[in-house]
Amino acid sequence: MLFDTVTDAIGGTPLIRLRLGEARGVEVYAKLELQNLFAMKDRVARNILLEARRLGTLKPGAPVIESSSGTMALGVALVGRSLGHEVHIVTDPRIDPVTLAKLRALGCRVHVVEAMTSHGWQSARLERLAELLEELPGAFWPQQYTNPDNPGAYRTLAGELLADLGRFDTLVGAVGSGGSLCGTARALREELPALHVVGVDCVGSALFGQPDVPQRLQSGLGNSLLPKNLDRTLIDEVHWLNDHEAFAATWDLAREQQIFGGNTSGSVYRVLTGLADRAEPGTRIVGILPDRGDRYADTVYDDAHWEANRLREVPTATAPAPLGPDGTARTWSTLAYSPPAGIGRHLLFVESNTTGTGMLALDRARELGTVPVLLTGDPDRYRGLSETGAEVLRCDTNSDAALRAAVQERFRREEIAGVTTTSDFYVPAAARIAQWLGLPGNAPEAVAVCRDKSALRERLRAAGVRQPRYALVREPAGAAAAVARTGLPCVVKPADDSGSTNVLLCADEAAVRAQIEKILAIDTNVRGMPTARTVLVEEYLDGPEYSVEMFGGDGQAVCVGITAKSVTAGPHFVEHRHLFPAPLPAGTAQLVIETVTAALDAAGIRLGATHTEVKLTADGPALIEINPRPAGGMIPELIRLATGVDLLDAQLRAALGLPPHLKAEEAGHAGIQFLLADTDGTLTAVHGADAAAAVEGVESVLVTAAPGTPVRRPCSASDRLGHVIARHGEPEGVHAALDAARAQLRLDIEATPYY
Q: What's the pTM?
């Protein structure tokens, strides 16, 4: 096989069947990660360094520093040097001569600490690494123990196993940083939810609650510290082997299977033998063998090393002994593992919408037993945030690198249960963070297509989904050609904004050109993000507007309901009233749902709530846009009042990997009337809120604009001043209640120019 670069040759390792359990109909396989150029950590180094270069946290030519006494050092050396970086490795006296020779041959600078500190060799190395970071400005530290790009690297390994085997029952792997076993298991469970995951540790390691014995001889597994990448919630069973047992098993692997492995491979092999002996016929077991034996020639494979450490005097077991919850492993022991009580489950929100459902979602997260965490660049923008009790993590949410750094520093991986957002602007960022952490979510590419309305138009055109005629414009000079394509009147709007911002109905070419110039002059949006600087000019479709609330999961999307919308007259389109469910004939509703389903399939949206806008024309439904998140405008609250379905709860459950509750328990109707100014000026007072709330059928009245607020005739959703929500058994009753409540409300506005 031909590769363009040495890093392209990483992965694609052999999977072989071992001679274990054959007589009993048990299949045992070994994934030979030791067949990478150096070892398994080659995958980790490649993923971490390439991601860091993509994000800009590793600059071209900047030094790379890592703490490692084994295969991670070799992986960083391989990838870092091949990419043109100076590589510094901090290690300890346990490093073997072969690894040391390889590192130096590759051109690395190797720093060997001289003595253990508070937490053994690990802490000693980390202290020296910190000194190097001070000495080498701009240096990058891969942080294999805390960086989620470590477990993320093993998504490729999981894909290789699924391609080679399809279904299997048990995965066995050594645990050191937590990356390989947890990353592989997390990815596999997306396809194999019942997969049994077995962790292999060493006696004297503190990873799974055992007392720490830093003098243990095994390398490549075990730890004196608890790495952030270790997700103990993924582990079903743990085995411990002492040094004698691990070294002897490594010899057995070579003699019995002709695989010359290191002690991590030997330990996994010993556990595979035990599992094969007690597995049911037909069981398929896979073990990951991380490293080969050349690094262990003067330790595991050296009689003098055995004698010097009196290894043969260490007691051994021929089968795993069950270990009690408070027991101490001294020989081969096993435990049906449950993670410690008290591990926090945090649901991360990457920003939020500023009105409506945003703060409600934080409350719902707590009701699901998780701690809501709002990652935000500006917590002051959220009214009512303090009342939610959410943890606030302040960071630059417009930077993936800053988001990752904040999450990585604050949380252990096992403490993060899900990632979501209720903001249009941050759906792509939330999808990228979820993918980075291996959590449920839509593909970032799919949500990016939906956020960029110009890209969505192209995708829907290719799929044959009915939509308005359109033209994409990036220069004002494109106005004439756009109008020729769409006809007049036409709608001009930004490709990537939200809430009807800068959406305008234009009656002539001059108005089209002026609106294009206005949109292209905007460099950043309301959240400080750079705009796409792309304008969408669309055919104006005459017909009522609806939004379709769908929910995806288990490979299909179901319709939660259709919302009827009333919008202001042109040239601006601001939604001022919603009614749920829309009073549509069943056949018409089915056509609308089929159109939306085809659009979601074309975009690639598979999970969670979507809010899709449709115009119903004389020629049938036409797709306007897909929002890959729950509806705003309090529509989820209308759905809850009308049917009992809590769409916010369902969305949060999807983010947490839990099944949603979508079965309607009621059959009523609900609606919302937004409060809008009828003139430009300053709001001086609002009268009649109590009387409006007393109208029969009214559920709530909320005024969001305080006296003194500048107001204007509505141009976008941000111009809403509050709302009234009503519920009734019939659509007419909802409208009557909203009309009566609105009649009680009076907005006093002092006419002044709006700035």
A: 0.92
